Amino acid sequence: MIEVKDITKKFGRKQVLKGVTFTAEKGEITCLIGINGVGKTTILNAIMALTPIKTGEILIDGEKLKPATFNHITFIPDAITVLPQMTIEESMQFMKDYYGTWNDDRAQELLSFFKLKPEEKISSLSKGNTAKANLLLGLALDVDYILMDEPFSGIDMFSREQIADVFTSHLIEDRGVIITTHEIGDIEHLIDKVVLLDDGVVKKQFYTEEIRAAEGKSVIDVMREEYKS
Amino acid sequence: MKSYLRLTEFELGRFFKFYFVLIGLTIVSQLIGVVVVSKGYMSEANKAIFQEGMSKQTFIEQTGPISLLGWMNSIWFLGPIAFCIASLLIYMFLIWYRDWLGKNTFIYRLLMLPTQRINLFFAKATAIFAMVLGLVALQVLLIFIAGIVLEWMVPNEFMSVMSITDLSIAFPYLHTILPATFTEFVLYYSTGLMAVFVFFTAILIERSYRWKGLIFAIGYVALATIFFMSPFIVSMISEEVSLYPLEWLTVQIILGLIVVVASVVVSRYLLAKKITV
Predict the structure, then answer these.
(1) Torsion from C-alpha of B65, B69, B70, B73, nearest 10 degrees
(2) pLDDT for A71-111, tens place per residue?
(3) CA distance A203 to chain B (A)
């Protein structure tokens, strides 16, 4: 389980996170939603120790993040994290060299799933294919948790559908996923839990199934209600 | 250790092409230089001897024999060295900043590798140091080759043969790059490595605290420099402080080690706790 406990973060004088607390379980897809600048990416960066938090604590399976934890958790930011001059094949080799949890079979499966050519350079890929290559590099790791920042941002409808298909496949099964997205419509039916952020705090968190069953509302309905109020 | 070595190899690979351009430029410039300088000397000698009727002996007495020193004082020799030094100095900053700047998000990947983040620091420092030593080794080889080319171009009676040690003693610029003794070599290059550690720490301070960090970074460099140079500063201020050379060396080594350890400790902390993508 990923536990985010009362974290605060300031950028200059602006207090971006004012005590955010939530948990993300293994085997569940947790979605962080909120308007731009609410601190969704900052939370993911903080979980991966890519930005320091002012106060609070983040635990992954009960422990603070240490180098070995990166073999159990992966972060797929909204931009690709390998060098643009690398080919997809070289990027895969780079990951294989450094991560003991790299799964070659899964990488090949993802390669054909996304119809990517290994010899293609990252810099020559379209935006959609760059997003797919980015996902490939993250998902081919045998990790317990996957963090994804805006995986659908700025890409065409077909690529979005293809990426959304990943969530229903065995590639995600049994893993804990935290995802941030604006395109909630694409994955609303796939999300287990929603953490709604507003003004640096968690305004509401709920299981989508429960809110659907109890109140007959969609995630978008809840979002509208909360932000209008 | 395995990750550190892999990262070092990776860092070297990233600069490989430009490094070969530097090597190529140095080889071409210095070898052309030795031909140009020796041809110039010989045409001066031919003019004096065959046109003005001067004897060889008089010419040598008046002009002096040719040695590699003449070549070393030329732009052909010093130009590529200056260019390599400037390139490596710029690269010392680029080796970190290129992973952050522009659309490049490679720093995410580097910081998410399942290894101690301080390995990034050591790998980048090792890459810079290895590149410097590679160029120094090339320089030794080129001086040796230049000596052979000079022997081909100039008759023996016009030449004054000098060893690399003689050249190092006679030519201050070369002495900085290629000190005359092994002890000096170790001391000079250890100081250089220490400077790389200090600059890397300053870069990490800036990357951790951004604008505020820039001031801290400048402060850190100044503090480390003053601390390392303190024996010189104290001896300049007070004439009562005088040390024997061996004592001086010991103090300097201890101060250098403190600066290195402090830089590693600060960088390790920043990479683990404060760095921001």
Answers:
(1) -160
(2) 999 999 988 999 999 999 999 999 999 999 999 999 999 99
(3) 26
